[in-house]
Each structure stands twice: as C-alpha cells, then as structure tokens.
Amino acid sequence: MLSRVADNLYWMSRYLERAEHTARVMGVQLNLMLEQDPRTSSRRWLRTLGALGNSTPVAANQDPFAPAQIYALRQITGGIASARENARQVREQISSEMWEHLNRLFHEVKRIESAGFWTRQPLDFVSTILESSHLFQGVTDSTMNHGEGWQFIQVGRFIERAAATARLLDLYFREFRESLGEAMDSVVHMEWIGLLRSCTAFEAYCKVYTADLRPERVAEFLLLNAEFPHSVRFAADSVQRSLDAINEVASSKRSARVAKMAGRFRAGLIFTPLEEIVTGLAEFFADIQKQCARIHSAIYEVYIAYPIEAAIEA
Amino acid sequence: MATPRLDEGRLDEPRLDSDPFSHYLLDSAYDEMFDAQRRPRPHYQALHELLLGMPADEMRRKKQAADASFLNQGITFTVYGRDEGTERIFPHDLLPRIITRAEWETIERGLAQRVTALNLFLKDIYNEGRCLAAGVVPREMIYSCRHFRRQMRGFAAPKGIYVAVMGTDLVRLPDGRFVVLEDNLRVPSGVSYMLTSRQVMKRTFPELFQRTDVRPIDHYAEALLSTLRALAPEGRPEPNIVLLTPGVYNSAYFEHTFLARQMGIELVEGRDLVVHDNVIYMRTTTGLRRVDVIYRRVDDDFIDPLAFRSDSTLGVTGLFNAYRAGNVTLANALGTGVADDKALYAYVPKLIRYFLGEDPILDNVETYLLTERAERRHVLAHLDQYVVKAVGESGGYGMLIGPHSTAEQREEFRARIEADPRNYIAQPTLMLSRAPCFFDGRVEPRHVDLRPYILCGDKVTIVPGGLTRVALRTGSLVVNSSQGGGSKDTWVLQ
C-alpha cells in the first residue's frame, strides 16, 4: 500500500473519531445543562473545553458556554470535512459505499450548519453525527477488505479514542479530587453519569457494577475493561492487533519496533496493579496520552515518512 | 396546465396539452431523433414511444434520482478560473443518444485508421523524419509547435505506440455524415462520465434497456489495462502498472480515482514516486516497489522538473531519464501533443494517405491555416462566419465563434491572429446535429458531439459508444464541460 494512502486512511479515521467524540461530549453536556444549576455551568463548560483539547484560554469574566459551542462546532464540522478530504484523496482505496456515506454526511453537515441548526436544535445535530459515524464504521467493516488499509483505519480510530478518553478522565478526576472518598450529592452523581455517557458507557457500566456509581470503579471500567469498545484497554488491544497485522505484511526490524510499542502500551494496562493506578491516576492518564503520541510518531517513521536511503539499503 | 379531457384514456391520440414534444422545433441541423418529415427514425422509435407514454412527473422523478446519484457518488468536475467553482456535478441529460450499428462500424474503422496513422507519424517525426523530407508536412509546422518535445528525438516508444489512449471528437453534419472535429492525444478525459452515466441510466430506464439492444461498454477498464500491459518494458512479465494523477485538485481527479479502482491499480501522485539509478519506485508501507508502466494523466510540461518545467511540483524528478533508459513506459508517450495541434490537424488526411496508402474513412472539417496569406486574408474579412481556435488549446478555451461574437471580440482576435498567425486556425461554423434532451417536463433539441475513446496497444480497441456532449444552453454550439456543456449516455445498437 502507498504510504500516502496509509496516511490518508489513518487521518480519515482519526478525524471522524474526533468529530464523533466531540459530538457525544457536547450532547451529554447540553443535556445536563437542562436540569442543572446555572451557577455551576461555567465550571462544566471550562472542563468540557479542556476535555476536547482546546488550548485557547477563556477570559475569567467570560461565560465559557459560547466559546465551547463554537469550538465544538468547529471540531465537528472541521473533523468531518477533513475526514472527507482524506477519503477523497484515496477514493479508489475505500469502498464506494464508504465514500458515498461520508460524502453525504459532509453535505448534510454543511446544510445543517448553514441553516443554523447548531444553535437551534443542537441535540438533533449531535444525534445525526453520532448515527452517521456509527453507520460509517459499519459500512467500513462490511464493505472494505480487512487488509492493510482497514488496519490503518483501526489504528487511527483507536489511538484517537484512547487519548481522548484518557484526557476526559483526567479532567474529571482532577476536578473532583477533593470529594472522591465522600458520599455523592445528586449534582456530582449526575456529573459521573455524564462522564460515562460521554463514552457511551453508562449502560455497559451498570451491567458490570450495577447503578452504584463510584469514581474508582468508573476509572477501572473506562481504563481496564477488555470487552467495552470505548475503554482504553479495548483501544489498546485493537491498536496492537492492527499494528501486528500490518507488521506481518511489512515484517522488517523497524516495523517490529512499532508493534512492540503497542504491545507495551497494552501490557501496561493489563499488568499494572489497580492500587498502583489509583494512587497515581494523574500520571497514569498522562502516560496513556504520551504513549499514544509515541506510537503515532513511530508509525510515521516506519511506514509513512521514512528516508529513501533506509529503504534502498534494505 | 393539463385539464381533464373525456378521451383521457386513449393512448393512440397524443394529448396536445401534455405533448412533451410541443417545443421540439426542427431546423437545418441534422436531428438525431426525427427525420425531415418529423417521423422518428427507426432506432429512436422505442424512446419516442416511451416519452409519449410517460407522465412528465415520472420523468422529473427519474431526473432527480439520476442527479442525486451523481452527487452522492461525487461525480464532479472542477472549473478553473472561478472562485466558487470548486466542485460541481457534471450536468447530465436523461435521454440517451442512439447510434445504429452501421454508423458505428464506419466510425470504428475510421478511428482505427486514424490512430494507426498518427502513431506512425509520431514515430517518424521523432526519428527518421521521412514525411518531413517528402514534404508531406512542412518542417516549420512541426518545429514551431509548442508541444513538440526535442527531448524525444531519437527515442522510439515501445512497440511504436505513442498514443495508447485517444479521444477524438466527432460531429455530425446536416447531411448525416460524421466528421472529425479534433483529436485529443495528450491526456484525453471524460471516459469516466461515459461509464458512470451508463450505470445511472441502467438504474433509471431498465424498461428501455430491455426493449433496445444496447452494446455494453463495461469492459473499457479491462481493455485499458491490457493495452497498458502490452506496452510494459521487455523482461517485466508481471508489470506494476500505476496511474499518475496531478492530485485531488485536478479537474479530472474523479476520473483518475475511478479508472484506478476499475483497473485495480495504484493511483499515485508525483510525491509517491522516487527515481534511483534510472529505475522508478513507489513509496509503500512495505518499502519501495518498482514501477513498470505509468498511465500518466499529468501533462508533459509538469511530469519531470529536471527535463521540462523546473517549477513543477506535480512531477517526478528523473522520470524522463528512466523513460529514455527504457526502464519504464509512459502512456501516452511524451510529445504526442504535436499531432493534435489544430494546425497539424489539417494535414491528417494527407498523413493517412502517406503512411497507410488509404483514403481517410472519416473526413476532416474544412480548415483554414492562417499562416497561408490568402486563407488568412479571406478569414479576416469574414470573421463573423468562422470559428477561430488557438492551435494548442483544448476544453473550449481560446476560441472565437464568429456568428455569436461581438465586434469587439472580433477585433481582439484579428489583432491576435495578425500578431501570431501560426497560433490560430479557422473553420466554418458547423451546424452540429441535435438530439432530444429533457428539460423540466418537456423535450427539446440541443446540439451534440461525440467523443469515442480509442485504445491502441497490441491491437486497437474501441468500446462501442463514447461521451456524447451536449450544449445545454438553447442554440449554443459549445459542448465543453468547462463552458456549460453536459453529457448524455451514448447507445450503440447491436
């Protein structure tokens, strides 16, 4: 597979995952806003901005709601436009069904955006994005060869997911650090449900732990559950599986290094004792994000932007 | 408005108030559907009946469904020189253009003859130059051509095939004859519209396909692939064939992706290729992989910054040396543009006689070379009757259509012709034939041309049909997509 194509597929998938994640987090927060004290809203929107990776500071006297809305809309529309642009450059590599679906979503989002639906009916907009993103993944899985290209799509999606989930968890645990051991009031309770919902995890969590919400269990579930598709562990499994498959095709010393990195990432999640994770949660979250960035760079060095000299000698 | 009438149910009497042909006026142009007595020609009978019997609403629905299908598939093209004009759907007309078997056989033989002669001509001018020595074509005509590549001198393209893919524009004159309007020998485009519009039509008019014996065109991609494979360098039994595109911003990018996918070959950009020791490789996730045949959709000028335009970022540095070393085949070869120069066009009938000893099967359009003093004087005196074209341009750019021009435009062209007569030719304004088109509930005639695609490898292959381009504006004679033209499906009957 052409290196440029692998690059496009990887980013197509990452951008779409980013748009989906942003839409889901926004949907949860907008829902919470309907039944919560407006005085706490400012703090929540600041946290949301941080969780979505916004780095522009918001002035202390400014209501962060508007910036959050603008930022999220840009992440969603920009993500879908970039996903589609990447897909457009590799149209012959993806199935026609995938392209048509993504292209239709792009036109739909443009239409909704210009009609101002984002401010008037944001929840409808969010559900359109979520539904389409899920559909696209289904279409991808059932119409595209599960070959190298598909594996790069998996890697892109799950690296993005692992890093975004870690960031989200980090911000929640930082904010509620003080009250972790105490009994929850209803407001805080809703916040933790919000965190689970932001990862589509509420129902899945209840099946494992019942509706009894405890922050350390939420962390355990979102970090370590091997069966839940939005947990970091599940993402790490998927990244490793796909990089192994890619390595099997490429099979060089350099490609083995990338696969090993993914293996180490996964092993960290499996073998680190829970008590150790819980005592150093902030470091653990930071480490997940760092490892994701490292795997990303290694993929580039080995598969996409390698120096010609290295390839000719080999 | 349709008002209910007592004889509503009777089909043998067309209802005047809903006759889809009420706005269909015949004029001096050849009409593809009706003969001079306004009777439908036999091969259009089935379509004619269908149109009479189908409610306008259903036709509208079919039109909408077809348009939606084009948009969702992303079948778009890019218009240059306009800010908003990034991506547009290719305007598509719903009604097929139908060609009989006998008409097609003439076209097929004529085009095969033409591509054979043009390949011999190209090999000759870049090597021995017999036709120049014999005075068939004046030397200055060749050497003054902007698309002549002196870098190709003394190099023989594999198997003597310079033009592997040709798109020739034919028009039908009022007497019913098809004549050649121009050849496209560099990077002819549009074939993807031919193929996708057939797919859409099958979905839109299944009933008509069942009643009409249409020859299939779906094997085009396979034929193109075998043509390219036949041109691979010696000793490469399993050649790696790629399609080189300028990238996603090129107007024909959709077509590049479409063809690459249909053929199952890699679509590469210049930045995907590297040259090492005169061998071309592509950069893949598993390392570098050798490339043997490049179906290039990048113009000569931009293909190698070392050999041609040094400011090109689309090309591959060192590609030309690898080509001359025989390590890779380019299709089409470089320098083929000299044979589709619009002034050289006037010599093609002579070339067919010289190289093949045959009379041309398809005639040319009468063409005035403006380098000839007498012809120039005549054309300049009657600019309002002629079409003037710049010799090296395509896509309908750089053209003056005399009868539709303003005095100001004519003065501008007069000055340009006098400054550089070699750069222009003139042709009489042709009455292109007209075919029925569907416009919001009724059928009207519009001018059309026909571009079949000719493949030339071990043998000449022409899939039955081509791209029929339509001048969608009333009365317009310009069919180019960049100038408001559209396309329709072309059916060749068994």
Written description of the protein model:
The complex is a heterodimer of chains A (314) and B (494). Chain A is globular. With 314 residues, chain A is mainly α. Chain A has helices at 3-34, 38-51, 65-89, 96-114, 117-120, 122-143, 148-175, 186-198, 202-209, 215-224, 232-250, 253-271, 274-279, 281-304, 308-313. In chain A, α1 (3-34) runs parallel beside α7 and α3 (65-89) runs antiparallel to α4 (96-114). Chain A contains 15 helices and no strands. Chain B has helices at residues 45-53, 56-72, 101-126, 130-133, 139-143, 191-204, 206-211, 220-230, 253-263, 300-303, 319-324, 348-356, 373-381, 407-419; strands at residues 76-77, 88-89, 92-99, 165-172, 178-184, 241-244, 266-268, 273-276, 279-284, 287-290, 293-296, 329-331, 363-364, 368-369, 386-390, 399-401, 424-428, 434-439, 442-447, 453-456, 460-462, 468-471, 485-492. Chain B is globular. Residues 1-17 and 81-85 of chain B have low confidence and may be disordered. Chain A binds chain B through residues 1-4, 6, 85, 88-89, 91-92, 96, 99-100, 103-104, 107, 148, 246, 249-250, 252, 303-304, 306, 308, 311-312, 314, and chain B through 71-74, 247-248, 254, 257-258, 260-261, 266-269, 271-272, 274, 276, 282-288.
